[in-house]
Amino acid sequence: MDTEEAPMAGGAAVHVLVFPWPAQGHINPMAHLAVAFAGAGAHVTFLHTDHNLRRLGSAVAAASPRLRFLSVPDGLPDEHPRSVADILEIGRSLATAGRVAYRALLASLLQPQPGGHGGADAGTGAGGGGCFPPVTAVVADGLLTFAIDIAEELGVPALAFRTTSACSVLAYLSVPKLFELGELPFPPGGDLDEPVRGVPGMEGFLRRRDLPSPFRRHGDDHDVGPMLQPVVEHITQSFKQARAVILNTAASLEGPVVAHIAPHARDVYTIGPLHAMSPAPATASAASLWKEDDGCLPWLDARADRSVVYVSLGSLTVISLEQFTEFLSGLVAAGHPFLWVLRPDMVAASQNAAVQEAVRAAAGNSKAAGVVEWARQRDVRRHRAVGCFLTHAGWNSTLEAAVEGIPMVCWPFFADQQTNSRFVGGVWRTGLDMKDVCDRAVVERMVRLAMESGEIRASTQALARQVRRDVAAGGSSARELKRLVGFIGELAMPIQCAAIHDFELLDNSIQS
Predict the structure, then answer these.
(1) Is there a domain that residue 453 lies in?
(2) Which of 20, 181, 336, 413 shows the greatest Cβ crowding within 10 Å of its Cβ?
(3) What total number of domains does the chain contain?
């Protein structure tokens, strides 16, 4: 969507602070939204943690003179791994050290600021130019409820961005009903294929194994595990406090699900897939925490159309050496060339160099397999040579595959991925759900089916056409984004009127 010349509604000077949870899967869609806001004429401050901003380095050169990058500390030491196992610790630290720095920074942004740096001791920054007006709205990750609360306390309207699928959000919102019906907690040793009641619109469809991974905790009504309760509280609180909830989804994907979510929020905006509505180069440079390897693109250029299996399990998934071996053996047996993204920290208790060598050795031919530590994901997934996508079913990856019409083999790792995988296989029928199985024979069979099934390919192409209509001019997502831009513009008007009133009072006081 080209909004570069479309000013914000009402002619107000709009300045939006965008604050994602500090993980790749959360940063990506919120970076796309930031670019969309800047293209619509708003000034945008994108707030990283200090650790992530240092990690990005010079890559955060501004994509627009109206977009800049600032940061606050996450409260953890530099050497902290910040891995998937540390999510709860990261959240607690952000809610303490990050809260204090965020409040100070946001308070400072209520005054006009230079474009390059925020002017607050709590924040460091890069990018942008000129003068930024006072901040007029905050769009915070739905997990950062303190960011929403503090904004409203300071008189800044706040919106919540849920970066996961709508179907997983609805599952979390349904937790009280699941307890009431006795669906939670799961009994120890219970059948994970047992259907679950209590999630609206998914009765008889969702199984226990399809609910978000924290639901698999055991205990009584007061002990639902160390991960489930905090996430449920975050979602419930952010829905109650925020002026609106933003979802990175489309009507063609999750329209009926969104209808069940809407009564829980003041308003809901479905504006996805955002990556298909935002210019890729400008956004990717400011979003990727990993160094991207473009060397795989010439390798793909040399492959036949739809001949390559692209394998990427995301930025957080960790697998055992045994699981790695099963995946590798199944891929080799499937008989198709494959390109595998293997992060240095992905295979537990092993050396990444040895793992990469095992891929090459098992393939038996350097032309049959490619290995990179991180790829330019969007360019790879849309490459003509890619025939299917073996994925963790993270929401960003699921959306990207939907837009490009790529069949999926889903092996979800955690969080919303279990629910996404079920929808891929059972609702959209654009791929296969391989959750809870890591066996070479199953990998081989499912990869072959995804690569060779005309029925699956036809479903993926049909869905891709519909999603592209959603994001095109006049489509449902494009209209929703325009509505959101208008709402953000309207929010700026009372703040600026109040600021003018305060200035007039001060001026009259001085003159008297």
Answers:
(1) yes
(2) 20
(3) 3
